[in-house]
Amino acid sequence: MKNKKAAARWLYEYGLITLGCAIYALSFDWFFQPNNISMGGFTGVAQIVNRFLPVLPIGVMSIVLNVPLFYIGVRKQGIRLLISSLYAMSMGSLMLDGLAAVYAFPPMEEPLLACIYGGVLLGISMGLMLTVGATTGGTELAARLLKYRFRHISIGRLCLTIDVIVICLYALTFRSINNALYGIVAMYISSLAMDTVVYGSINAKIAYIISGRSEEIAGKLLQMDLGITLLDGRGGFSGDRKQVVLCAFKRSQIAAIKSAVTSIDPSAFIIVCEAHEVLGEGFGEYTPDSL
What we know:
By secondary structure, this protein is α+β, with helices and mostly antiparallel strands. Helices cover 63% and strands 10% of the residues.
């Protein structure tokens, strides 16, 4: 039974990595390369090298440039990172060069559309791989390693910072400020898409419920198998003491919670806030390698 579960998990992870690699190659060959928009990261560095040495394929150069980062990554995160990320990097680079050899996408008439859709696809591909602990190397691996030092910064923002530096070098090399600016827009969109994929599945909401019937509301929410915390509060104008019901819940539960609360107290004061990440029973679990 355990072997079947392990095999199913392995197939799921590598299937997701393969899908991410395919989207990655498509985004580069369709939107970035034909429109001379820098992708940032080591792929962007490979674009710069390819400019001066066209004989060196971009995909192959990406692999060569990633070797030092993989060495550091394995020392930090173990051999599992090496295996999955080597597969992702190799598969992504081969798909990138293979697709380019089979079909050459024409430049788009509107570069802005290229950077928007290219950024979305790139962010989705990177996010899919990061959710199963893999990267194609370069920016994503560097950002993953920097995350140990800068825990308060999201993985997408770290990638964006590195990419902007590479894009500035790209602008100096190709002497194209417009394409570099498009690249920055694409990388920003990519960082948002990546954070949505990586953190979206564990994003939750928090509700603060203030009511004179807080005990009834708390009981109702407990019946819905929701965890709650009762906070002592006092009205700023009236000075009346009330209990505030604090409840963390998943996005899909918001309508049911509003309905339950207003059915008990239609005048209840409800504040719903975004929670970037919730850890604990029923939600995510913290590990040292968490993104």
